[in-house]
Amino acid sequence: MKVAVIGGGLAGLTAAAYLSESNRVEGVLYERSPHLGGRAFTYEKNGFILNYGAHAIYGMDRHDLSDIAQELGLTFESREVDKRKVMYAKGGRLISAPLNFVNLLKTDLLTATQKVRFVGEITSIIAQLHKMKNYPTLGDFLRESKADEEIKELWVHLVCSNFFLSPEDACQVPGPVISDYYHNLFLSRRPVNYILGSWSVITEQLKDKIERSGRFQIRLKDPIESISLDGDRFLLRSKTNETAYDRVILAMPLQQALRLLATTPWGPPLASYEGNTPTEVLIYDLGLREVVARPFAYISDMDHKLFISDVSATDPSLVPQGGQLLQGVAYLTDRHGREEEYDRYLEDRQEKMESLFDRYYPGWREAVVVKRVSKKAMVTSVKNVLGNELLPITLPDVPFYFCGDGCAGKGELAERAFSSARAAARLVLEEAQTPLPVR
Q1: Strand-pair category, 401-402 with 247-250
Q2: pTM summary value
Q3: Which of these three, 159, 192, 225, is where a domain ends?
Q4: How far apart are CA 253 and CA 279, in angstroms?
């Protein structure tokens, strides 16, 4: 069986790595950019290792990446963010963040009575008995909840920080999604981790596995321009070649997949997904020549809906000797109004981020070696909120497989990319066990 995988991000690399293990499958992974990794791309600048996109792993011990690493023979180390140094800022006060039950009982966000109530809600979610599963959204649940306002605010802020959403969007996350997510997270013994050495440690191993198999090629800077039927096979045209394949996996952001298939017979069945919106944030990376301050590993400003991670506090391999790497993230509301109004909104978000840097990392402006601001960075291609619909791995009347963070799968962010890719690859491998019909 000859298979094309379109997209060289985490999903495409994972799918191709699984397929490369079968002697019944051969194929090509196409990537339109000069490098692999997609939004998990890692690069070096002036001695600092920077990532595009979020690279925190939530609930590592319950994360699909742990199983995938074992199945594919990947090796990497991860380090947990020091829970004692994860803080929330609210009303001028610094408060321990409730990452798990222990921290929840220590935090000053809630009174003793409120802690008991909130622990009760979390416990019932873990037991999968809680009625939040029956609510369309978090907002619907909170409107009917008799909990104190502080507990409601904490729910919203937790969803903001784990899903990278504004408060307005957080309230639109479906109740079953939240219930499943926190069922896993609050049972985790390792709630927030970083892959040491960053995403490149994973993407390089996936790449090496694919190439070592001798059954898969990787083609960079070779975007697929069209797909058409060629008998009972699929003809893919790229800038450099034209090749027929038995199966095709689209491992790209939903928006790109829709454009590729728009003028094909398979465009109409995908029309209902055209209104889906991505999750976008403002990302502000700072590489500093020295450690200007290290009051905590993570600070989340509940008042202004943004946070800063001291990435190098958890992974010092990302900076030159004595340096510091900070990453700020500001949640964004959906674009509205005129272009210039939204530009002013983004400038305001950037200014608030810089004010947070000023407050907790005084002297950063004089110590900057590397600065990168991405004002509309895509975190996921489909925001998991009411009104959006994650793309299934397979669709009736569409003879392709889909995977990526915009597809149905376990968890959020990178976990959905990994889990959907494994599921898509398994379906292809199941087909490969049956000889193809004689043509």
Answers
A1: parallel
A2: 0.91
A3: 192
A4: 12
